[in-house]
Structure formats: C-alpha cells, structure tokens
Amino acid sequence: ILGLDWDEPAYKQLSQIAPTVLIASDDDLDWKRWFKVYAEALGKTKEADQIMAAYQQRIADLQKQLGNRLSSTQ
Fold first, then answer.
1. How many Å apart are CA 28 and CA 35, to the nearest integer?
2. Three-class SS of residue 6?
3. Which of 18, 23, 38, 60 is most buried, with most CB under 10 Å away?
C-alpha cells in the first residue's frame, strides 16, 4: 500500500493488509517526487526512470510542435 503521511492514522490497519509505505507530503504536490519514492519502494527505479525519460521526451516534442504559440497558451 502506497500513501502519504496524512494516512498515518490508518497505518497500523493498512500494514496488516499489506506492506505499507507512507511518505511525507510536506504539503508538496510534486507528483514526480512521489513517483520516484514509490518506485524506489517497489524496487522499480529502472522502470520509473524509463517512464520519466519518455514523459520528458513527450514534453520536449510538444514544446517543439507548439513553438512560439507555447508562450500564449494558458
């Protein structure tokens, strides 16, 4: 079970169901950081790195396609 520290009150119950990893949210909504921490917890860092590289490539491709229009996009 993967969760954030705001799930801590239920940690004992959750950990009885399955191995449980909670990370500190620090009111931080950085999904990329959470993705990396969860990948490490699952032993999937190589796969996560590949997913993030593909994600970054898609962003670069989109930026290239949008060109100057990107600055006027909200």
1. 13
2. helix
3. 23
Identify the residue whose tokens are 């940690």: 11
Task: Tokens for 20, please give them.
Answer: 């449980």
What pTM value is reported for the model? 0.69
Q: Is the Cβ–Cβ distance between 2 and 14 less than 8 Å?
A: no
Q: How far is CA 21 from CA 9, 28, 48, in A?
A: 13, 17, 17
| pLDDT tens column, 4-52 | 888 899 999 999 999 998 888 776 678 898 899 889 999 999 999 999 9
Half-sphere exposure (CA, 13 Å, Cβ side) for 9?
1
Helices 31-41 and 45-66 sit at what angle, rounded to 10 degrees?
Answer: 150
Q: How far apart are CA 12 and CA 28, in angstroms?
A: 24
